Amino acid sequence: MTPPSGVVVLTDRLVARGGLDRVVAGAVAGGVRWVVLREKDLPRAERAALAADLRAILADVGGTLIVAGPDPLGGDAVHLPAAGPYPPPTVGLVGRSCHHQPELDRLTTEHYATISPVWPTKTKPGYGPPVDVAGLGSLVRSSPVPLLALGGIETPEQVTACVEAGATGVAVLGALMRAKDPCAIAATLTSAYAKAVTPKLSKPGAGSSRSPRRGLRPTVPTQGSSLTARSGHCRPQPPTATKEER
To answer: Radius of gyration over alpha carbons of the chain, in Å?
Structure first.
């Protein structure tokens, strides 16, 4: 399974404006193709039902749901905390939350990792210290796996800075969960990502492109019709009750 790239959404139903299903549907309409389901405080049965709902939203665009924790809840992709478990479970896709070099050095069979916080974050105030863009670039160069930047990412400029530092994508929570229009925010961020990874001609009028950075090249999601950040068209998402609201 290909590691995540582009804009990756982390869920938080407690701050999701209008309900988690609605926010995720809006983000997907704006070009997001990867979602990490957190909500680890829910009973397993409720969490599994929520996972099924989000997979249904992603299925229409070929997206992937990653489940935080070692239990994939019927899927094949998990995202683990830095503390464990070690070794990782044997599933199709395994990610790990990392914050500094020693945690990257512990990686074994993981397929990707997040680095956080890159900037101060409203979701976890005081968490850090932030690694900043220079620190992110240094960790990217030493990492054995592709890295997603996480923490305080809210603007297109931040997305561009992370990609230029070598990250294969950005993981976003607050900027999308709290958005009045998650589709528009997702479209803006995914468009910035697509522009940042598009090869530029080495010389004006030249036919050759720059060589890509070392490591895996980020994949720009293929998006069609109204579900595209490239076109900027977002279908309004009707309010949908989450499992805990039903």
So the answer is: 17
Render pLDDT for 92-132 as a digit per residue (tens, 0 to 9). Answer: 999 999 999 999 999 999 999 999 999 998 766 556 699 99
d(CA 229, CA 222): 10
Does a structural domain hold residue 46? Answer: yes
Q: Which residues contact 85 (CB under 8 A, 6 or more apart)?
A: 70
Range of the domain at 50: 6-198+216-245
User: Nearest CA to 196 among 147, 230, 156?
Assistant: 156
Q: Which helix (H) or strand (E) holds 52?
A: helix 44-59
Say what the pTM is: 0.84
Q: What is the pLDDT of residue 240?
A: 43
Q: Do residues 113 and 66 lie in contact, with contact meaning Cβ atoms separated by under 8 Å?
A: no
Burial 206-233 (b: 16+ CB within 10 A, else e): eeeeeeebeeeebebbebeeebbbbeee
Q: Is 171 a domain residue?
A: yes
Residue 3 identity (one-letter amino acid): P
CATH of the domain at 16: 3.20.20.70
In-domain check, residue 189: yes
> Does some domain include residue 37?
yes
Residues in Cβ contact with 129 at an 8 Å cutoff, skipping those fewer than 6 apart = none
Work out how many domains the chain is built from and give that number: 1
